[in-house]
Design brief:
Helix content: 25-40%
Number of helices: 1
Radius of gyration: 24 Å
Oligomer: single chain
Number of strands: 6
Strand content: 25-35%
Shape: elongated
Length: 108
């Protein structure tokens, strides 16, 4: 009976190895397909109670454009998150430096 345990442990070891191999391959594929933007400095001023209108320099990955990137912004004022319906993100291309404009309209 004891000899049967060796075979079971070998099967478990093989199953765990295959699982780890598949998970590792999936993580590698996900990381390989990911792209990113690097943010540069911001331009604009924010005045309390006014519409937020800021631009940021962006550097997309090689071969990518700002417009083809999935852009989004999350604005937080103190402890309050600005609702997504009031935040607008617009890619600005055509200049020397690609930029993105982030606007949040005041309540009203």
């Amino acid at each position: 009976m004891r000899q049967g345990y060796g075979k079971i442990y070998k099967q478990i070891e093989t199953t765990v190895f295959m699982r780890n191999l598949l998970v590792g391959a999936w993580i590698y594929a996900a990381a390989f397909g990911a792209s990113a933007l690097s943010l540069g400095g911001s331009h604009g001023t924010v005045v309390l109670g006014s519409t937020i209108d800021l631009t940021f320099e962006v550097r997309p990955d090689p071969g990518k454009t700002v417009a083809s990137s999935c852009l989004g912004a999350r604005l937080v004022l103190g402890a309050t998150t600005v609702p997504e319906t009031r935040v607008h993100v617009t890619p600005l291309e055509g200049g020397a430096i690609p930029m993105v404009r982030v606007q949040a309209h005041s309540r009203g």
